[in-house]
Design brief:
With about 280 residues, this protein is α+β, with helices and mostly antiparallel strands. Helix content is about 20%, strand content about 35%. The strands form 3 sheets. Strands 1, 2, 3, 4, 5, 6, 9, 10, 12 and 15 form a 10-stranded mixed sheet that branches. Strands 7-17-16-13-14 form a 5-stranded mixed sheet, with no helix packed on it. Strands 8-11 form a two-stranded antiparallel ribbon. It is globular, with a radius of gyration of 18 Å. It binds 2,5-dioxopentanoic acid (DO4) and magnesium ion. Magnesium ion (MG) binds next to strand 4.
């Protein structure tokens, strides 16, 4: 089951059928216990129509209203190695090495809703940065009770030169306007997502693929439930929240994003998040 926040309402997709929910408040729509079964009950009372698919094609919003977006870091070996390399000169490499094996994961605040874009919208790179990459990440939707009730595709846009200069600059490297993208939908399953799920990224410049790669989410060092447990330890989320689970796909060090680049991130069973890098 997938739910989309469109310009004309909330669309539910189930077994190739499309429905428009009667809900008008996204927070109330998504933050329900047993969301999968709630949605199943809801669609039994709604007419199905294949034309409702056009609402999805006509433009999507990020599937968010008042939720915060948080992110976990250094959850894949590839991320640990890349961060250690970029921060060697500053002496910051030791922090990344240690956090990979530590009991406590790296979890940071990524974005408030107004900094988040959806599929089809533009992301940004910072004017004061010369080395920028997208980070394709499976992103959890967690309800206010701390239960993982959905999954979306996330892009944790990052300025690697700022992050590498000093680990204390991480909030500036990670959080700025349009630095987070999620979408195209929230996928709601009746069981946890399969560990064999593949994340694929493709970066295109003038319609030519510059970088592409894939990884299975079972390459992640930590469990989703472990990350959620730490996030919810001393924080409440009245309308639920999103948690990006870290990247395992890092372009080589020569690569940096440019204005006009198209970033396509696909996660099996969820969909493709497409964003273009806008003018600085
Ligand atoms: O510590 C830096 C950020 C790590 C991160 O965002 C990731 O591994 O995805
Ligand atoms: Mg990341």
């Amino acid at each position: 089951m997938k739910i989309y926040k469109t310009l004309q309402g909330f669309v539910i997709e189930h077994e190739s059928q499309f429905y428009i929910s009667r809900h008008i408040d996204w927070d109330l729509f998504v933050n329900r216990e047993d969301l999968y079964f709630e949605l199943q009950r809801e669609i039994q009372l709604l007419p199905a129509a294949s034309e409702y698919k056009s609402l999805i094609d006509n433009g999507l919003q990020a599937p968010i209203q008042s939720q915060e977006v948080w992110a976990a870091g250094v959850t894949y070996l590839k991320s640990r190695n890349a961060r250690m390399e970029e921060s060697k000169k500053s002496g910051g490499d030791n922090f990344y090495d240690r956090v990979y094996d530590a009991d406590r994961p790296e979890i940071f605040f990524k974005a408030s809703p107004h900094r988040v874009v959806g599929s089809g919208q533009n992301v940004r790179i910072r004017r004061d940065s010369k080395w920028n990459v997208p980070e394709p990440e499976l992103t959890l939707f967690i309800n206010s009770k701390g239960q993982i009730s959905g999954y979306t595709v996330g892009n944790d846009m990052s300025s690697r030169d700022i992050e590498g200069e000093n680990p204390l600059y991480l909030p500036q490297a990670k959080t700025y306007d349009k630095s987070a993208a999620i979408g195209p939908c929230i996928a709601i399953f009746d069981e946890p997502i399969s560990p064999e799920t593949i994340i694929t990224i493709e970066i295109l410049r003038y319609e030519i693929t510059l970088f592409s790669n894939s990884i299975e989410i079972n390459q992640m060092k930590r469990k989703h439930t472990e990350l959620v447990e730490f996030l919810f330890r001393e924080s409440s989320f009245p309308n639920g929240c999103f948690l990006m689970t870290g990247t395992g796909l890092v372009p080589n060090d020569e690569f940096t994003l440019e204005v006009g680049d198209e970033i396509r991130i696909t996660i099996d069973g969820i969909g493709t998040l497409v964003n273009t890098v806008e003018m600085k």
